[in-house]
Amino acid sequence: MIESHEKLLKLIKSKLPHLEELWQEHVLDDLAEEDAIYRYYHHSFKTYWIQEHTNAIVSIFEELACELGKELGRGTDLNEKFISIVRSGTGHEFDFSHNSTWNAHTLPQLQAFWHAKYMLEMMIRYGRTLESAPQMLPFGWGSVLYLYNLR
Questions:
Q1: pTM, to two decimals
Q2: 19, 76, 86, 143: which could form a disulfide with 69 (CB 3.0–4.6 Å)?
Q3: CA separation, residue 7 to residues 23, 50, 110, 150 (Å)
């Protein structure tokens, strides 16, 4: 199992500049989270724009899963719980009828973004700081392993 952890860490390290760029573009520069939270409280259809950021982040996770699968010689899917959260929070189009059930429509979108953002930040943190896959797992690194069903 530790071999697969090493391969994932090596892959993350090789993609670190791209992961950091993605974070900069879809979390920091665009103020995606700040804007989405404001729009949520403002009851603005622009809250729905957070889905674009979520999809951009998740796409790199899927690319990494594909590359990891090749490295491991087997298919590697993203964690089903994570995928379920992302599916619940993406693919939505605003409709005026959503205003009457605002939370039911928008909170899953925000939740999906927060899970994607968290995983991206953990990849960046541990891609920067870990030299090798640890035996004693930091919680965030453990979460990344769960994302790739390695735990």
A1: 0.94
A2: 76
A3: 22, 31, 31, 11
